Amino acid sequence: MDRWIASRPRRGSGWGGRLARRLGALGVPALLLLACIGWPAAGLAAQAGPAAALRTAPVRRVQVDREVRLDGTIEAVKRATVQAQTGGEVMEILFDVDDYVERGAVLLRMKDTEQRARVRRAEAALAEAEAHLRQAEAEYRRIRDIFARKLVSRSAMDRATAERKAARARVRQARAALAEAREQLEHTVVRAPYSGIVVERHVEVGEIATPGKPLMTGISLEVLRAVVQLPQQWVNAVRRQHHARVYWRDRVFDSDRVTVYPLGDARAHTFKTRIRLEGDLKGLYPGMLVKVGFRLGQAQVLAVPASAVFHRSEVTGVYVVDAEGIHLRQVRAGRALDGGRVEILSGLQAGERVALDPVRAAFVLKQGARGPAHE
What we know:
Number of helices: 8
Order of helices and strands: HHHHEEEEEEHHEEEEEHEEEEEEEEEEEH
Helix content: 25-40%
Low-confidence stretches: 1-48, 369-374
Radius of gyration: 43 Å
CATH architecture of the largest domain: Beta Barrel
Structural class: alpha+beta
Distance between the termini: 32 Å
Number of strands: 22
Shape: elongated
Number of domains: 4
Largest sheet: 9 strands, antiparallel
Strand content: 35-45%
C-alpha cells in the first residue's frame, strides 16, 4: 500500500488518476486488491522510461601493467658555475638571472689593464729571446766553419752549440709566457660554455674577482632528467625492466634511459635513480615535482570508463544502475588506463553496471526513477 501511494501520479493526471479517484469510494480493500494483482501505476511506467534509457557499461577486470609511482624532481643535465680564471675588477655584466644566453655569448667583462701589460712584457721578452737566438745561430755557424778547418778548439765549438741550444730554449719559454699572458687577457672576457638560462649571479659590478671565484651559474633546458629515490625492494625489477614513465600534468614521458646508482642510502634504504627525458620538454623546469612510474609486472584491476566517474568537491563517485534502480556509490579511483578507462581501487565489484552519463543519471535519480536499465 505504501509503495503504491508513493509511486502514484499526481491527482488529475491521466486515466490512472481518474481510475484511482473512482476506486477511492470503494475503500481500502479495493486498493489493496489492485496492488496485489499488479495494477500498472502510470507513475511507475513514466519513471522507468528515463532509467531504462541510460547508457551503462559493466565494471570489468582488465590486465594492466603493475606500476609503482614515486615522487621525483626534475633537474638539468647541464648545470655549470662559471668561475674567474684571472683576477680583476668586474667592469660590465651583460646578463642577469632568467636571461637566455647563447653559447659563446659574453657574460661579463673584467678590467684588463694588468693582463694587457703582461702581454706586452711577454711580447718584448719574446722579441729579445728571438734576437739572442739569431745571434747564437750566426755564432754557431761561424764557429762550425772554422772548426771544420781545425782553426778553433773543440771547447769553442761546444760553447757555440750550447749557446744555440740555450737561445732556442729561451725562445720557447718566451713564447709559452706570451701564450699564457694572452690567455689571461682572454679570461677577462667571460663567455657562456653552452646555451642556457642564467639561474644565479654571484658578483656585482665593481667587485674584485679572484681566480676561482664563482661568477654565474647557468643551466640548459634542452636536456633534462628526473631524479627519484627508489626503495631497495624494487631495485632489481627496475634494473631488469630498464624503463620508466614520467608523469607531469596530462603529459607522459617514456624513457628507456634509466640509471640506478650502485650505492644506496644505508639509512633510508633507497637508491638514487635518474631518468633521462626525451621529446618536447616545453614547460618543464628544474626543481619541478613529477611522478615517476616503474613497471613491476602485470596485474588484474577493476576498471570503468572515465566518463562514468565524477568528482564533486572531495567526493569521487559513480552511479550504479541495477534492477532496483540507480544508486550513488562513492569510489576510490586510481590511475588512468589506456582506452579511456579509470582504475577503481574500491567501491565497486566486477559485473556491476555504471551510468556513462553521471549528469543524466543524477537527474533521473532526483526524479525518483526505479527500474531496469540496459546498455
